[in-house]
Amino acid sequence: MDKNTILAIVLSVLVITIGMTIQATFFAPATPEMVPTTEQVETSSNTSGQSTYLEPAQSSQVSANIAWDSSLPGSMVAVGSEGNKTPFTFETNYFLIEFNPSGASIASFKLKDHLDEGEPVELLFKDASSNDAFLMYAGNDKTNPIDATFRYQIIGNQVQFTQEFALLEEDGKTPGAPFSITKTYTFGEEDYLFEIDVETRNSENKAIPLSFENYAYTLAFEPQIGPSFSSLDNNYNYRRFYIKEDGSSKKDQVKLSNGAYATTKPLSWVALVGKYFSMIAIPDATNYMVSLSEVSDEGLPLQSNIYLSRPTIKSAAQTDTFRFYAGPQLKGDMVIYNDASLNSFGVSGLQLEAALDSSSWLGWLETILKTLLNMLYRVIPNYGIGIIILTFLLKLVLYPITKKGMESTAKMASLSPKMQEIKEKYPDNPTKQNEEMATLYKKEKINPMGGCLPMLLQFPILIAFYGLLNKHFELRGAMFIPGWIPDLSRPDTVASLPFNLPFLGNELHLLPIFYTVSMIFSMKITQNASTAGSQQGMMKFMTYGMPLMFFFVLYNAPSGLILYWSVMNALSILQQLHTNKKKQREANEEAQNNVQQFPGPKGKGRK
């Protein structure tokens, strides 16, 4: 193999790496590694009494003292009667929700139609010390939630919480005029969208006294969306913030500064997006301050929080409506909120599908491959088998291209002795070597790039399949082989080690090993077919170095993706072996014909 051919192979590797890097950086999930786990999500209610908000009552009328910033005119206390403190479960067609009367919050939020190890997937990832979701804070404070116990009632598809509060007078003991906070959750029949109405009402005909740095209250989603995970790598598992400004047709990814971000720009929505699920907050027309934060602590690997701070209320009564989409990253479940006739809330033009992670620059090809894979699944309901069959079909489609490339590679092998002669004849004249090589290629009708160009032509399919299998929603939880590959969207973990391996972690995956071995073997048979002896050092790097590089890059890739590449490698090996054998047979026949046509010294004649 000459320098031009080696350069072409190196450039091919660079194209693969750069192509995947471009997809990872600009088009969503494409750069290695994350390992979601199945650890149990803690859904216990937040009633430990550890919060500084909820203190013993000052009097029979004061059920809780909620201390807030000292710059306020006084403390805020709950003055209404307490309701039942026991968390309760509420079920809709899509959701299984555990409500907590403390703070009128949600302690567990499960999606009934999407499973995690056979159980409804938990969309609220929290631990015992985490705040519940949809707590309120006074003003724009984000440290002490209002976790007084609310009274509640269930009316059809609504869960309504109510409590009365008051600000303490300057003596710090006497409650002022009471005002009420009513938080109502409303759910649709066939929707992943739901509403939270926050009604504040003063007992006097005066503005509601909630005001802290010009904000009345903050509604929060925290601490994280599920499923649970042990680490994130921004590719195979991730959490990202997106915002969509009013009037904009596209989303913008939010880059946090020191783990925080805040804006008062009018937003259509703000989204916390994972690989398969998202939580999208859709405030009403009020000019809210939207704050986002990411925090790592001992309890959770990462907290991702959304805060919606409502400006000071200047009337005696006010109702604010917040909408939230809590569901799968599937276009079909999102586009119904563009047409009022298709959803229970009569909303339109939300463009929630813009929150989907963008397809790669080959999204049209991903769509074709996805359609074919789903068609195969309808015939054989196993996505693993579907991936294998689709790989065979792709190999058949690519056969004319790969056949030409392999024949060119094999033909190059037959020229190795002549190429070596040229190098020995002109050892100190590289220019003359190149001229003679070019003449030889022209005479033998060989394109030195012939073995690499077909590989380059396959890259679009390779990259499209990478994008598809890395984020195809239907692969989530799809079993291929029980006991080995129970989920094609995750690595095929066969054992957990009691220690961490450098760069790999503590989980043992077999498919990446099979893939690497098959890649090395494929490179070796290609090398044997086309390598001149003087480039053994470079070829060893290509044979072993490149596969090892991909081994580390793809070690925690979804098993569906590695399955595709492993099968494709196996088919390429069989094709290359067949091509090599065919070319060897043709070479032997040509040599025999030459012997017959040109008698040797012993006088053998033609037949």
Jot down its keywords.
607 residues; alpha+beta; Beta-galactosidase, Chain A, domain 5; 11-stranded antiparallel β-sheet; 33% helix; 24% strand; disordered N terminus; disordered C terminus
Mean pLDDT: 80
User: How large, in whole angstroms, is the Cα Rg?
Assistant: 32 Å
Q: Estimate percent helicity.
A: 25-40%
**Looking at the structure, what is the overall shape?**
elongated
Pairing-aware structural class of the strands and helices? Answer: alpha+beta
Main pleated sheet: 11 strands, antiparallel
CATH level-two architecture of the largest domain: Distorted Sandwich
- As for the number of domains, it is 2
What separation lies between the terminal Cα atoms? 37 Å
Written description of the protein model:
- Strands 1, 2, 8, 9, 10, 11, 13, 14, 16, 17 and 20 form an eleven-stranded antiparallel beta sheet that branches. The chain has a five-stranded antiparallel beta sheet with strand order 7-12-19-18-15, with no helix packed on it.
- With 607 residues, the chain is an alpha+beta fold.
- Helices cover 33% and strands 24% of the residues.
- α4 (383-414) packs parallel to α8 (511-530) and α8 packs antiparallel against α9 (536-553).
- A hairpin with a 2-residue loop joins β16 (267-274) and β17.
- It has helices at 3-26, 331-334, 363-379, 383-414, 416-425, 430-444, 453-471, 511-530, 536-553, 559-597; strands at residues 64-66, 76-78, 88-91, 95-100, 105-116, 119-122, 136-138, 151-155, 158-167, 179-187, 193-202, 215-221, 239-245, 252-253, 260-263, 267-274, 277-283, 289-295, 303-311, 317-328, 493-501, 505-509.
- It has two domains: 3-22 and 362-475 and 501-597, no CATH class; 64-355, Distorted Sandwich (Beta-galactosidase, Chain A, domain 5), CATH 2.70.98.
- The chain contains ten helices and 22 strands.
- It is elongated.
